[in-house]
## 1
Amino acid sequence: MTFKMTIDGQSVAGQSALRVVNPATAKVFAQAPDCTRAELDSAVDAARRAFPKWAARPLEDRRNLMIAFADAIAARADELANLLTREQGKPLNDARSEVAALVGVIKTHARIDLPVHVAEDGPDRRVETRHLPLGVVGAISPWNYPLLLAAFKIAPALLTGNTMVLKPSPFTPLATLLVGEISVGILPDGVFNVVSGGDDLGPWITEHPGIDKISFTGSTQTGRRVMASASSTLKRLTLELGGNDAAIVLPDVDVETTAEKLFWSAFMNNGQVCIATKRLYVHDAIYDRMAEALSAYAANTPMGDGATPGVRLGPINNRPQHDRIAGLIRESHAEGHRFLTPCGPHEGDGFFSPVVLIDNPPDTSRLVREEQFGPILPLLRYHDIDEVVARANDVDVGLAGSVWAADDEVAIGVARRLDTGTVFINHGQYLSPFAAFGGRKQSGIGVENGVDGQREYVSPQTFVMAKR
């Protein structure tokens, strides 16, 4: 299978190719273009030429075209979902949900307005602030949710009048390239360009003088490099970076029902989620029962090729991440941590790793201090609220966290003390396209979604008008 880039409304095969691996088999099943610097220049030039007319179109026109784009994506949902499962590894039902979310995010942003703000309206003058698009957006999306996280960039950027050059991860480029092909004939040429490539392409985009803003989702370490690269031209930035999300479980919860919810808060998409629970703090009074319930649930959750009916957990997406998880498991063994679940090697091909629960490792261990981004989770005992809040906040990132309790008021009180951009209360992973999502500390800069997310793609322009 071969795929093409979309540049200026045209399909571009590229001069060279990347091999795309199915993580369930560890075998190459398709090729994607490996964008050259000249091809990137063409995409940026196309976006710059398209920008003035796109920005000048009435908002209602842009809104209608975005809805038509979403409808065209929905019409090919099965094709996109099957492709996503093959390149990313997630179960087919989860892939279908991601495609539906892509459509939903685009349509939701089409309903959000950035209102004109009237600061003064007196006898002498009227002062109002409206919003202008920034220009060309360079968007870089990751491999864990390639379509959904691209949607968080595509929808607000295009709706507010910007044009875009989108780069998916080299591990999962295919479904995104297909979305680019679907846009042709719906969006004007040059408005939405999709390019794929290897390790060089990201830095070319972040430093490109023809790009006005970078929107990046990925690790904190890479985010620092993006920020440095973009600084030479003072590009605007939105950086949605890593987290090390803590879940705090109070002693009044129902253990059995909460265990299932906690399991999926940690292991949805095999733990490859920025807002997944990565440190699970359980009160002493229920720790042993919760550990037992989680271990039993893990033992009965089928893992395998995402294309196989009934599978709930797929493989790790790529070999480097699989090797990183294997390294964390080896390190935990070497440090003498107690394993609550079996962790033997997977038989056969593919980047599979079993769900691993570790019993109360030290807070100083790498498993606790760093984001795992995979199916391995430390369970940590605590004794009182002040202690656990301090431990939960004692990291240099602050993307999300959660509190689980039977008493809602107590849960809200604890939630208010967490130093994170999002707090879930008796709830697992959920991002609303209507609500701002962003991190504190080193979990990023700026926000995505909602009115605040749209403001990331515009700059204010204030009119001061004398009255006569």
Note: The chain has 15 helices and 22 strands.
## 2
Amino acid sequence: MTDYIIAIDQGTTSTRAIVFDHSGSIVSTGQLEHDQIFPKAGWVEHDPKQIWDNTREVIGQALSKANITRHNVKAVGITNQRETAVVWDKNTGEPVYNAIVWQDTRTQGIVDRLSEDGGAERFKDVVGLPLSTYFAGTKIVWILENVEGARERAEAGDLLFGTTDTWVLWNLTGGVDGGVHATDVTNASRTLFMDLETLEWRDDILDVFGVPKSMLPEIKSSSEIYGTVHTSSLLREVPVAGILGDQQAATFGQAAFDAGEAKNTYGTGNFLIFNTGTEIVKSKNGLLTTLGYKLGDAEPHYALEGSIAVTGSLVQWLRDNLGLIKSAPEIEELAATVEDNGGAYFVPAFSGLFAPYWRSDARGALVGLTRYVNKGHIARAALEATAFQTKEVLDAVNADSGVPLTELKVDGGMIANNLLMQFQADILDVPVVRPVVAETTALGAAYAAGLAVGYWADLDELRANWQEDSRWTPDLDSAERDRLYRNWKKAVTKTLDWVDDDVQ
């Protein structure tokens, strides 16, 4: 009987279950999108119950398509949108509010309040993160302060918090019937509450935020058996043995296990992760210090991360809000109708600017417009925005690490766009490399789970699975590269200082 690993990829726009074989190849996939809820400008929510319902359904889809049962599955791995916060009642399993998504900016007032004593970097030496609406901690505070009765129920020990990995794990292992309330170090490192050195929740920081410690999940490694799937599931009694936040999972799936290795994921947002090994490197250039992974009892590996809020979601915006295209892949065809951006630059600061600026007061801008600019130029400017933002982050990584990256491994949905990948290589002036298995996020979670149960022996076996599919090499005059980038930096300045007290 052939054995497999199944990964649950709970992402920002959809939930997937992917079955992998021993070579790291995809056997089958189940996928369902969930609703994107926008109650007000800057607010982004998901329905946690819909996410859990979809999770159960996509597991069934993946098993059915692969024509296998739970008896063929050695372990389950989970990967997830990291900072999205769910708070629910441990006695009923009911969320007290919708999940507040990582893109949501409603907590700016809380960030400002916490920043009054010590500024935005008040806790950065301990947790590796600046105070920002991006991270889960302020979202918990908002729920406690704005949902009727939530504070009292939390202090009575009735409410639990988790990022979506924890929500899926708790439900998968039984929910109110003995569900495991845990997370891994990579997700814990995105809350603002975890000490990077001790890998434990900081009581003093929780006190400042006013979050009861009883709400928080137990912090575990990224690769160990957390529990088994509940008897009510198609995967009953299968061990759940791997958890990695989506960007760390993609890094793991790219086999970037060692210091100096890096990857860039092109998804809803873009996330460049640079492995710093067992050393905690504190950024001086606007990057985050985060956990890379921790395998069982082994030493943790750390990383520098450049987080970009809006890349693939800009293409969705052009499709859904403006109707400029009917499907996401059409963006490449439209952009290819023109030779260049026509002088137009699109800075998609819809949720402010993340790395390396961390400016929540920024808002999106399309600048450099003349009568000459057409929809092809706008499509091209949207794609180029992804590449320019990646260059800004990679410049920061090079400055912090002191070791210039010589090639960039890429993954995520947008890497199917050849025009974007070529422009990325051109603007970075380094080769861009795409692997054969592009679903590296789910693959990373599968690897973590498989290692824990002995399905794969060690990291060397995983390295041997990685194969190059495509490579783009730079082909742009250096003077033109400098001109384009200079104008991009100028465009960024036009987005700043937009949000006032009466402008959201």
Note: The two ends are 58 Å apart (CA to CA).
## 3
Amino acid sequence: MSGKPEHIVHDEKAKLDFSRDMSYGDYLQLDAILNAQKPLSPDHNEMLFIVQHQTSELWMKLMLHELRAAVACVARDELGTAFKMLARVSRIMEQLVHAWDVLATMTPPEYSAIRPYLASSSGFQSAQYRCIEFALGNKNAAMLKPHAHRPDLLAQVQAAYEAPSLYDEALRLLARRGLGVPASHTQRDWTQPYAENDAVEQAWLAVYRDPKQYWDLYQLGEELTDLEDAFRLWRFRHVTTVERVIGFKRGTGGTGGVSYLRKMLDVVLFPEIWKLRTNL
């Protein structure tokens, strides 16, 4: 057997003719994906900006796929399957966190060269990101408006807005298991922002004080902790990257930019899960 590359390929009997069969590029629709980058400026660095955001949207598509399925599993008491999906969501979030490292290589002058071509487009308007936030319980009716011009996208965001969040379904599960979650938190208007509740904390405390009895609920609590931990890191890397690239300029979407993102750092998705640690 020769060590030359062409002989190795021949000896391994690798398939080389795809005139009649589906290829790797065919399966992945690579023509569509790799031709979806359409820079509007003459600047070299716009390709980085586009690819960064397009790949993030692909990861978010997978995240929503897993999140929606996980919420359905929790609603059906299928926690083992839900745990696998939630662990995957946390790992996807880690990928999104590290993606900011690549965008952070864009310097302020480089971004300034492409910013005029962005007009008012902004990640603030991402329908998928909004569905993720709604699925995690951060409900805000105002965030439906950026999608009003696209009925198809509005329908997706509206559905996420009106549905119980992951945490809502977790609390309904605790209630079904006989823990003292009040009706105000199991039968409520799901479009309203979540309100922290002492009785809910007591229910989670019962789980955390007796992990052996409530092992799967205890594991659910830790999966939620992992997820919010990763989400907080993503938000932090977002704000630091934006500050590094544009400073305190207003965002292209009209927000205060860094000032707005810093406010989002204070949003807690699963408050009782974090508070109980002080009271254990």
Note: The chain is about 60% helix and 0% strand.
